[in-house]
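USER: Write out one fold?

ASSISTANT:
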Amino acid sequence: METPIVLDFGSQTCRVGNAGESMPTNIFPSYVGIPRERSQLKPDFYVGKILKEQKREFQIKSPIKNGTIEDISMASALFKNALDECQGYGKPILFTEPALNPKQIREKTIQLLFERFKVPSVYFSIQPILSLFASEKTDGLVIDSGADITQIIPIYEGYVISSCVHKQYVAGNDLLEYLVSTISEKRDVNLSTAAAKEVLENQVKKDCLVALDLMDVVRLSSDPDLLRTYTLPDGTEFSIEEERFLCPEILFRPELFINDDVLAKGLDVACYDCVMKCDIDVRRCLFNNILCAGGNTLYPGFAERLASGVQKLCNDSIEVGIEAPADRQYSSWIGGSIFASISEFNQLAINSFEYDEFGAQIINKKCKISWD
């Protein structure tokens, strides 16, 4: 039997690789280029390095929004690139999906995999469940914060408690926009170009950190090592100081930074409220097993700040436990790699004979989304 391929698609990047590996072997942006000049001799969509090398030739869009595939036609280009990169044709597929993925999207996706890409078998598994699986757990509260959405997902006995899932749209892109607007205004630097935003995303955000409390803000503000200087591709230099800890503060105090009709909650409050919506019998277990996942949780001090904030909201009899794996931006892929390596995977997966007999609806029967 061929080694399964694990496909883990997000709003910003796609992670791809063979089951059994410790890390994805291919990571590429979740963006699709539509040629500005159409031709029957050219593909409808492009993915990968060509979008950066010849970006003026394309209208660039993402078929994935808030972690969910919105345009299956464009998404087909991501699947093709993924299978090309890892020589995945003819191999079983484990496809990771967000919690509460709409049924019609699941059906369109499995239809694409079987009918266009002729996969021999496929299984869909939920990303936060796989993140827990990577940490050898089946119960816990997963905080998954990525490019355009932050999700808080309670999971018990391996199933999502769907009625208590909390989503809010304060995430990595908001932090990026804060840096663009704040630094541009204070430092009189034009950071609106794609090249400048790439520097902010790949360099500046990686130097940010989370203040643990008000006293830590005071300490950081007077730290002589706070200053960082960066150079844009055109040679322009700019520096940041307090922006390093104010940027991720948006996740914990969004009301101070984002003007919106519907204000998001701070992550510590959102986590507490999410658990308190769950059945009283599972709350202690969830508080004891909070798991950080997604690239937006990588900031130094993030896990400590979250643990402290949630603990203050709980009574003294509850002990808050938080785990923040080192490679948590890849947690769902890593969990998928482990899951697709178990001996039972081939029996769990939907094969082409089952698909031919029952159609796309089989995905909603054989790959359960939640327990409620």
Q: What stands out?
A: The radius of gyration is 21 Å.
